[in-house]
Give the backbone structure.
Amino acid sequence: MALGSVIIGSGMALPAQVVTNDELGQIVDTTDEWIVPRTGIHTRHIAEHETATDLGAAAALRALGVQEGGWLREGAIDPATIDMVICPTLTPEAHFPSEAALIRERIGAVNAVCFDMSCACSGCVYGTSTADMLLAASAADRASAEAAGRTPRRNVLRRILVVATERLSRLVDWTDRSTCILFGDGAGAVVMEWREDEEGMLASYMENTDDTDHVLWCDSAFCARATPFSPAREDCDPYMRMAGQAVFKFATSAMVRSIETALERAGVTAADIALFAPHQANERIIRYAAKKMGQPVERFQMSIGHTGNVSGASALIALNEALTEGKLQRGDLACMAGFGGGLTAGACVFRI
Ligand code: ACO
């Protein structure tokens, strides 16, 4: 019997302000001619007044069908039926409460338990894969409780909201042309529901390797603080830093390895996938992965041209755009892939 975690709603939100490459050329030494061929990025959305919570809540409300503009598999979803909110983010509004808890309050998910995840640009995959594992564990717990005629021993989880939200513009060093051109702000969300009669997520894969050379790094702003008993860290650097070429090398191999492992676990081939929704770090990375896998690049959703890199929200935004554009139909297989700081990477395969 097929059973699994099915995506029943999807949404996204981008800040109103659009920043062009020419505008960036007015603050750092760069040009549209340099940026577009190397990255595929034409514009990105940069929050002016929107907070990470505003963006996350808007994406979530669209995924629930409370606000228009999202994709719903069947119908609108009552926020009170959400059992858990998982928020992959690098830029929460507060250290606590969690960003997930702030979004819970905003959307009225009054029965949800909440936590954030720090896994950089793999948030799309780490978030949905973890949600899938928890939904499966809860289903097994409920089944054994029912067989034994007792109540479940763990929280009952039937619906989980995964909402990745980022205000990366606050982590960016706006004097560093090698990074400030790449990133944007935004949020993406999915609602996942456990079904006893559908496949949903077929397989997932997550990995973490040591970033010994610090190719992707951002110190916490805390390290700049002295206390009465200790000095501030002298080398504290609370801005995003990246060794571009090393990251490019890691990203291309990690994306292909992750997708191939998830496909193998799912017992399908790349040709069976109707659409890939990869992390949007760089159009060249996506093109390279498509070529390496012998797949037409048209089957890889590209949002980067107008969003830039929105970290863990990127692939959820790409997936939402594919769903709302009608590129994925019920029964199609899709694959999401991510890679980023940590160094993290992963992929998951699911039936729409
Ligand atoms: N405009 C103009 N010139 C620039 C810019 C810019 N915005 N940025 C760098 N340059 C210059 C450099 O200073 C260098 O000049 P030099 O040779 O005089 O020193 C030259 O361009 C080449 O620099 P490289 O860093 O070698 O440029 P490269 O061709 O590697 O492209 C890029 C840089 C686009 C960042 C590329 O390395 C890349 O895409 N890396 C992967 C990025 C990525 O995916 N990051 C992921 C982000 S985090 C995440 O998603 C997990």
